Amino acid sequence: MVSKAIKVFSLSTCSHCKACKKLLNDLSMDFDYIDVDMLQGEERKAIIEEVKKHNQRCSFPTIIIQNTVIVGYKEKEIREALNK
Amino acid sequence: MNEIEKLYDTLRKVQEPQGYFFNKDKERVFELLEALVANRERYGYMACPCRLASGDRGEDRDIFCPCIYRKPDVEEFGSCYCSLYVSTAWNEEKIPHVYVPERRPPEKIRF
Q: Does A16 reside within a domain?
């Protein structure tokens, strides 16, 4: 299961998701990510439900930074949430 | 010329006359075209790389690339949801590059 303070729900094929992961890496942030399209069966259903709790539309990337939820690659909002 | 370059040229010839241009960031475009090919291999159709496909051809018809949301998105934002297809104004930076929200109705999304 996802445990870090920063979680990224992503798709392996999504360029916005890749840009988000790159930004977090460039900022040397410690984060977990899950490429939901690579999941199957019950695990996939469980993770989709978790995404929906934060983002009812279940679009990607869905980024959780402590209690802040950011939907989409919004660099300014991500930096602000990270105080970077 | 590899498969992706061929796909790039083929799609350009078809899409540009319709007013849809590839993002000037060629690296991004090639990344997305590779993703479309990957989706065609795993699902049998070029499902949108930035949306979670259900794997059911019928359910995902609206997000076959180019998706049915491209037209209104490019009209409103100058870019499709993935930033694969954009307008000339977007490429020439005459309009701001803004986040394109998900236009697909939630009820259409099957997992």
A: yes
Domain residue limits at A16: 6-82
Residue A57: list chain B partners with CB under 8 A: 102, 106, 109
CA distances B82 to A67, A75, B36, Å, are: 27, 16, 11
Report the domain count for chain A. 1
A2 has pLDDT over 80: no
Pairwise pLDDT comparison (A25 vs B106), residue with the higher score: A25
pLDDT confidence tier of residue A4, bands split at 50, 70 and 90: low
CA distance A24 to A21: 5
Does A75 fall in a domain? yes
Residues B48-75 pLDDT 10s = 999 999 999 999 999 999 999 999 999 9
CATH number of the domain that residue A22 is part of: 3.40.30.10
Nearest-by-CA chain A residue for B25 = A15
Tell me the ipTM for this assembly: 0.92
User: What was the pLDDT predicted at A43?
Assistant: 96
* Chain B interface residues (partner A, CB cutoff 8 A): 28, 31-32, 35, 38-39, 49-53, 82-83, 99, 101-102, 106, 109, 111
Instruction: Say how far apart CA B87 and CA B23 lie, in whole Å.
Output: 8
Residue B45's alpha-carbon distances to A8, B57, B83, in angstroms, are 26, 7, 19
Task: Flag if B50 and A18 touch (Cβ within 8 Å).
Answer: no
Residue A35 lies in a domain: yes
Which of A11, A14, A58 is opposite residue B109, by nearest beta carbon? A58
